[in-house]
Design goal:
66% of the residues lie in helices and 0% in strands. By secondary structure, the protein is mostly helical. α11 runs antiparallel to α12.
């Protein structure tokens, strides 16, 4: 019997085109996407108008996420709407749009407040809380060092804290090095990657033995980050 080879892409497309169950599923999916689009369109109408009032003309908040242009006048408007009721998708766009340096020194108080009260009962809520921490990792200024350390040490916030060690890379003080070293020796796995990155960024000599060990970690992501950090540290101290 002749053995059939793997199905080609065009053959699969033809099969799916003639599959009534698949076509029905796709029609329902497109209906759901259209409903979500209409909901979000109505939801962000006020936000878009206020952005236009400060000279920012966009069709949706995600236009800010995807632009390379600076938009400092939009930051106060975005912070105002982050504290208001919005569809989860629009809130995601607002938080992502606030994850920029222009928000540094302006957005921290509100981001910290929203992070503390954000629930994490399901995947959508957990992603929302993670995005808030990711924004803090980008915008937190030196003034908020103690607040970030407090959040990082609060296990109640769980995996949402993943990106917070990245903020520590910018802060001054020996206590920052101690916190990062404690994470890579005793912390949760989900905090390791950003802590390793921060230690490499800070050129912390004491971290090299442990980072070398972590190049053999069971996680490929951790191994990759550890190798990059170790290479950076070795290069830096070879010149000393």
């Amino acid at each position: 019997m002749k053995r059939e080879g793997p199905i080609l892409a065009w053959q699969l497309q033809e099969q799916l085109k003639n599959d009534p169950e698949y076509q029905a599923r796709m029609r329902e999916k497109y209906k759901q996407l259209d409903r979500l689009y209409q909901i979000c369109l109505a939801d962000e109408e006020g936000l878009l108008k206020e952005l236009l009032d400060v000279g920012i003309e966009v069709e949706c908040v995600f236009d800010l996420v995807n632009t390379r242009a600076s938009y400092p006048t939009a930051i106060p408007v975005l912070l105002k709407h982050l504290q208001q009721e919005h569809h989860q998708k629009i809130r995601e766009g607002i938080i992502r749009a606030l994850t920029v340096r222009e928000a540094r020194g302006i957005a921290e108080d509100i981001l910290i407040s929203e992070f503390k009260k954000a629930p994490d009962r399901d995947y959508v809520e957990q992603l929302h809380k993670w995005l808030l921490a990711n924004a803090l990792a980008e915008v937190a200024s030196e003034k908020y060092k103690d607040a970030i350390l407090e959040l990082l040490g609060d296990e109640e916030h769980g995996r949402a804290r993943m990106m917070l060690p990245r903020a520590l890379a910018r802060f001054k003080g020996e206590e920052i090095n101690k916190t990062l070293l404690d994470i890579i020796y005793h912390g949760e796995n989900y905090l390791l990657g950003e802590a390793i990155w921060a230690l490499g960024k800070r050129k912390v000599l004491e971290s090299m033995p442990r980072i070398r060990e972590l190049t053999a970690h069971s996680s490929s992501d951790i191994r990759r980050i550890a190798r990059v950090a170790l290479k950076k540290l070795e290069k830096y101290y070879s010149k000393k």
